[in-house]
# Entry
Amino acid sequence: MADGTQPGSLEKHREWVARVFASGRIPHGILLAGAPGSGKLTLALEMARRFLCHTPDPGARPCGTCIACRETLTLRYPDLILFSSRDIVPEARALTALASRAVQTPAGRDRLIQAVRRLFYRVVNRVNGGYFKPKEATGSAGKKEDDDQVRIAGLERKLNEIPENDAVAAVNAIQGVLEEILEIDEMVAHAMLPMAGIQEIIRALSRKPLLGERRVVLIEGIQTFRVEGVNAFLKTLEEPPAGTLILMTCTGLDAVLPTIRSRAAILLFKRPGSALMAAIARERFGCNQPGDAEGYGDLWEYLESQGEEARAVHGDLVRFMDLVRSADRDPKMFEFAKDLEKREAAQVFLQTLADLVAAGLVAAETGHGRERVQAMTLSHFRPVFLRRIFREINTLAEGMTRNNFSASQGIVALILAFWLEEQGPR
# Structure
């Protein structure tokens, strides 16, 4: 049994999966642990497809053509029981940013839509499963449920009708669907895995599979499992019904209850390196020249940065910091500020700069995200300065929004403020 003591790559863990399935001695429960984008879901779905595939010959699984193989990839197969507390916002933002690049090829478009469908069916599962409580809302609860069902039906129709030969229309449709997915998901409290979900899984496992002879339970975010539900779950994890495979994912083993860890085979994933993240951007989403992945916290943050608008903003940030270092001798700061205004990019730039300054404060005080801040040369600024400049950036952005202020003079003032701070005593 995999013991999880040594982090491995996706390819290394695939070798273990191949050996285990070939032997026929498949553990009842497998726990996949690693950072976002490390390959946990990829491998979990590969195992689910192998386990659920309808092809009689075990050596030919997954066949890739049966209904189990096809529908498992989008989390829609009825004998794949999903229970997820996964935060879909980072992935949705990344897919939104990458849409215009991914749709340029048929393969990229198909992979993008498949990823959007996975987000969609997670949300459908949360809304229709009945074990995640809706957040407080005004009006009739019954009317809200009816409205959600209408929106879900409409979104499924939109996903099925995304244009194939019009890239601009396809991007607009995909981005619109993602926006609606997030709006519906925001109405459901899913930060923790509630006891009601475990009870529903146990009830579902007491019945026969719907389409095949096997079932897979996929629990995303097992580290958010509520302690009061653990005893009922442990019995199921230790002795599940015949033909059942329980797959669990988590971001880190330390947060998972020891009683769960001790009953599962553990696959610990390495954090994805910069080369792997760049390869994913290139091969899955059509980024022909992906930017440097150094300094990004996880795959989704990096992929979001590869969108056309995000890459432009990143370039503006780099130029801003270059001007900070040469503000006493480079009059191009005025050209830079005017160019931002001309491109109507000042508001987005200020919001991104504020986010980066906030990250600088967090890194200075907690150490979290230090690599990204160092990459943008913010790590040497004093926290007291970062707090002050954060307020000034937001004041400037708010003035632009409310009063239609010109941004160019304010951006020049920000460059000079950073430059003066660099000249001061350390």
In short: The chain has 18 helices and five strands. The mean pLDDT is 83.
